[in-house]
Amino acid sequence: MKLIEVTTPAHQKEFIEMAVRLYKNEKNWIRPLDKDIEGLFHPETNKLFRRGAKAKRWLLQDNKGQTIGRIAAFINPKMKEKQPTGGVGFFECIDNEEAAFMLFDVAKDWLQSEGMEAMDGPINFGERDKWWGLLVDGYSEPNYNMPWNFSYYQKFFEDYGFKLYFKQFTYMRPVQELRFDEKMIKRANQIIANPDYSFRYIKGKELKEKAPEYFMTVYNKAWARHLGKSLTLKEAQIMFGKMKPIIDPRLIYFGFFKGEPVSFFINIPEINQIFKHVNGKMDLIGKLKFLWYKTFSPPNKMLGLVFGVVPEHQGKGVESAMIISYDKMSNDPKFPYKTIEMNWIGDFNPKMMRVCEQLLADIYKTHHTYRYLFDREKPFERHPIFD
Asked: InterPro entries under this entry (predicted)?
């Protein structure tokens, strides 16, 4: 077997195509958009490079010159850990432990040469909300930008010495005809009856001009402390701008107290139900297919992106009021979405797990994020729990 560093356009193409060949008989695998993967490894499309990030990729060939594996390793200066920690991701491999370990070894050796003391994997060369974690349970079709992999990968990671750093759950529930706990309904109705509170979805001019500001306000109070980064208005506007082609105003829901935003529930249509028809290409034909399926066979599943309540209104029943108010709207027979899935709920975030449980959602998929300490005598610690 031979390792080849990805350095040419031909290598870059093979990095994409080897996964397509590997999964050709897997009905639930959905080919990611080529640009979503390749774009991560170029300074023109990944601003992390301009902040000092580094990345390398390798292909693994067998003795006949056939590609049987791939891996990427990267250093993200935004990752703040007790020890310098790099990442490995975009791992794919045939069912061969020797091949898998060769790929892990080359990534580890490079990260050590760059001063790293640990590696997390499989993770993304960028934000946590994409390509993060190893699927270990729930092998149905993946949501957009969520990883899907063979079940035997788990044994590769664990036998090599990676240890579980945290779990990520995807929760799922039907949208309509749900029964809620009587205590939850009572708490919700007390808030709904308070004229200082109001709950509504955002549409029209308000969606374009005010929703990013509402989102930024609640996000920075509810999540910035945990995630270590505040959101600027420009960043929120960019986020909503990127969602514009797929946004459905019925899925953007806010709560207000005396006219000020205090909570949100941001959802989008699950667009992998469309992207699975474009074969990874958003060229002219791919765009035409996207428009056709969006118009004539739109998604019937919505994806919960983020739910938040500002701290001073937490524990008062606002969460319940949001859920009950939204449920009344979604029970309209004309509402097209049948299920909702909520990605990326870390087991270190019991508050969000409780929110999902309040929604009567069940764990539908589980991903693992692993950590490998290069000093094998150093004590291993799980991800800290959010308070």
From this structure: Acyl_CoA_acyltransferase, BcerS-like
